[in-house]
Every structure is written in C-alpha cells, then in structure tokens.
Amino acid sequence: MKSKDTSRRLFLKQALALSATAAIPSFWIPVKGHATPASPFVSPNDRVNIAFIGIGNRGGEIAKELYNTGLCNVVALCDVDMGAPHTQEVISMFPDVPRFQDFRKMFDKMADRIDAVTVGVPDHSHFPITIEVMSHGKHVYVEKPMARTFNEVELMMKAEKKFGVVTQMGNQGHSEANYFQFKAWQEAGIIKDVTAITAHMNNSRRWHGWDPGIRRFPAAEPIPDTLDWDTWLGVVKHHDYNHDFHLGQWRCWYDFGMGALGDWGAHILDTAHQFLNLGLPVEINPTYLKGHNKFFFPMSSTIVFKFPERGAMPPVDITWYDGLDNIPAVPDDYGISELDPNIPTVAGGKIQPAKLNPGKEIYTKTLTFKGGSHGSTLSIIPEEKAKEIEPLLPEVPQSTSNHYANFLLACQGKEQTRSPFSIAGPLSQVFCLGVLSQQLGEKLLFDRATKQITNNKLANQMLAGAPPRKGWEEYYKI
C-alpha cells in the first residue's frame, strides 16, 4: 500500500498535468450547493466553505475579516503551531471546526468539504500551499507578496490559468478608495504622462538595530513542543530552529521573507503598477544599501526600477526608499505627511507615525501627486494647482465590496477579484527582482520578452530560487 507522501506526489503529478477542468481530482465529491467540476463557483445563495491556513497574527486577522463578511462558513483551521498563544483567539472562535498542523493532511482528509482557502503564512510557504490549493480546484486568497521568488510567481500565474479558480492577493487597499480614484483619474486623463514615482517606507523594521556584520545564521534553539518545524520550513533548505526565524521575524531573512519592499510595495505601488501598465522593469539598480550582508535585509535601501515606454506612455523610473535614515526629498508645498488610519494592526500593534509616512509621490509632465499606502487617496500639489484642476476631476465610484468580500463574492460568481494573480503576479515579480538586487548588491538588466536577467548569470539562476527540499519538488512541476 502506498504511503501518504507517495500518494500526494502522484496526485500532484496527475493534477498538474491535466487541463483546468480535468484537474479537479476524480475523488472530488461536491457538497450540495457548492462548487462542482462543471461549475467552479459556489451557488450565489450559499456561503463559501472556507479553510484558513495560518491563523495567528496576520493570518488570524485575515480569517476574522473574511468571517465578518457573513459570506462564508469556516470548515477547517490549519496552522503549524496550534498550541501557540497567537493562534488561540481564532481557535476559540471556532472550537468545533477540525484542526490541522499540516495543510497536506487537511486536504487528504477533507478536500471535498472545502470551496476556498486563505494562505496567511510566511512568504516562503505561499507558493507550495497555493499550488496545493489550486490543484484541488479550490479558490485561494493569499497574502502579499504572492511568493518569494520570480519563478514561483510565474508558476502561480500559470496554475491560475490551468485550474480556472478564483484568486486574490491580499493587498487589501486594492479594493478601497485609492483603487477607484486612480482608475477614474487615469481614464479621465488627469493622471497621464507619468515619468517618475518616489515610493518610501521609512518606519522601523524588525532587523533595524541588528548587527549587519553577522557571518552565520543564528544558533539552534529547542523547537517549541507545539510547533511542526519541518512543515514550517516547507520548500526551503533545512535551518535549525531559532526564535529569530519564527513569527514575524522570518521577514528579515532572504531565505524566508521579502523585506520592507515585499511587505509594503504592494500597498504603495499597486495602483500605479496596474493602471500605468508598467509590467516588468528593464533595469533594477540598488544605488544605496546600508549594512548590506548575505543573510538578511539592509538597514536602508534605495532601489531604482526603470520601466520602458508602453504604447503612448513615456518611460517611468520608480525609486524605492526604505530605512530609518534614508528619507527621500519631497516637493515644495508638500504639506503634511498623513498616516492612513485604515492600515491594519499586526498582532494588535498599529504602525507608528514617522517623519515621512509610507507613501508615494507621482511626477508627470504637468502635475505632481502625493499619496499614502493601502487605500489612501491621491491629492494634487501644490494646493493652488489642485484648486485649478478640481472642476475637471471625474466622479469616483464607491467600492461595492472590501477586499475580503470581493474574494468571496467572486467565489460565488457575483464579482471578479480586483487583485487576481494575473494582475498581482507581475507586481510581485517587480519586488522579487528588487530583492534580488538587494541581495546581490548589483545592478540587474532584465529582458521583458524572455524574462531573463542578461548581465549576471548568477542572478539569472536565482530567478528560480534554490532547489526545493526533498519531498517538495512536485509543486514546481506545472
């Protein structure tokens, strides 16, 4: 009799080889009123049966937001550390719901009872979990950034097309006021001829204050009794457990996270990237890296992304700034730097205001705009120019649904998601290229047609990332 691991490898191999319709496994038994192989959508009159993978900290906040829409039934909870304090709140909300530590075992036992899944886990685990979800024909909501490597994002976009499921990346501001305003202003010709964007996130990050002279990974510590460390590692090569890899600390390390750029870029640059049709850059240049080292992210970074002409749109340079002492200059008459009150908490903690809060300045041939992060709307500066343009501004529609309801309504076939992988993927790949330039400390030249780095053989190999750990290879064989 075959082992569970052998059966899973066979299932993935078969599922990934089939067409979108046939990819739903033959043992899939539809729940009354819910998705069937002929119709991937849940009945408009039924709640979506949802499983939460990652229920602590940010994952727990996503779970609560989705549940509060009233559009879903929670049918499974999954987290590698079901005994940890940060998972107990969501567990207490759903005491009778089945619980799992390994997402693969969850699907082995109850794939037929699930319509959709959330993935609120560390960046390095987004890819295998999301591929597993889609291979079962399930809809998926995954936190930003989509994945940790350029190739993982590429495969996720390919799987989205293959399996025909609803996808949503969790940059929740993409369903709020900034999305609708930017779209309306761009369509009305208010935002046009953009030549440069400055984007910045200068608030304190977890690794600020660490010694950038570290020459090795931190020493092994005892694995907490409640933690499934092997499943937490997922596709990444083995690392001994250390508390500085766990919880939010994973974001600090190249092996696990995407740093400040991957964390905040999707909240600051998402609308500009989509509505200016930026696609992928042709050059990525890390012009300033303070405390550069091979293990974790610099204390401060400045990265210049160059995007070519797109039809009638001129080339655009985006300059990204992060770090406590790496604050960009702003235009005269900039005014105050506001912090979007809708930025969510993480583990109950709100982001603290800074001298220059997370946001962007957009420069065109005739106008300058300033904006914040997440759902913050743009304003025209200086104020005199804003008053002059005001009569020309189009009416901006209200959002019909927040990001979480938008996903669930899309699962019911009532809406289309605003940040599907087809839109969020190229945005996430921009950040993957930026992180690669941070890690290597070198300018990279990128061919948009072939999706290859042309001036650095090592960097081009790193687009695919390190080989996956033994037992996780099948997720990459789409």
How would you describe what is shown here?
- With 478 residues, the chain is of the alpha/beta class.
- The chain is 29% helix and 16% strand.
- The protein is built from 14 helices and 15 strands.
- The chain has helices spanning 4-17, 58-68, 88-93, 103-110, 123-135, 150-163, 177-187, 229-233, 259-268, 270-275, 383-389, 403-411, 421-440, 457-462, and strands at 48-53, 72-78, 99-100, 116-119, 139-142, 167-169, 194-201, 283-290, 300-307, 316-322, 359-364, 368-371, 379-381, 444-447, 452-453.
- It has a 9-stranded mixed beta sheet. It has a 6-stranded parallel beta sheet with strand order 3-2-1-4-5-6, with helices on both faces.
- A hairpin with a 7-residue loop joins β12 (368-371) and β13 (379-381).
- α6 packs antiparallel against α13.
- It starts with a helix and ends in a 16-residue tail after the last helix.
Task: Tell me the helix content.
Answer: 25-40%
SS element count, helices: 14
Which structural class matches the secondary elements?
Answer: alpha/beta
- The SSE string, one letter per element, is HEHEHEHEHEHEHEHHHEEEEEEHHHEEH
State the end-to-end distance.
Answer: 27 Å
Write out key terms for the chains shown.
alpha/beta; 478 residues; nine-stranded mixed sheet; six-stranded parallel sheet; globular
Helix-strand blueprint:
Blueprint: H1 4-17, E1 48-53, H2 58-68, E2 72-78, H3 88-93, E3 99-100, H4 103-110, E4 116-119, H5 123-135, E5 139-142, H6 150-163, E6 167-169, H7 177-187, E7 194-201, H8 229-233, H9 259-268, H10 270-275, E8 283-290, E9 300-307, E10 316-322, E11 359-364, E12 368-371, E13 379-381, H11 383-389, H12 403-411, H13 421-440, E14 444-447, E15 452-453, H14 457-462
Parallel strand pairs: 1-2, 1-4, 2-3, 4-5, 5-6, 7-10
Antiparallel strand pairs: 7-11, 8-9, 8-14, 9-10, 11-12, 12-13, 14-15
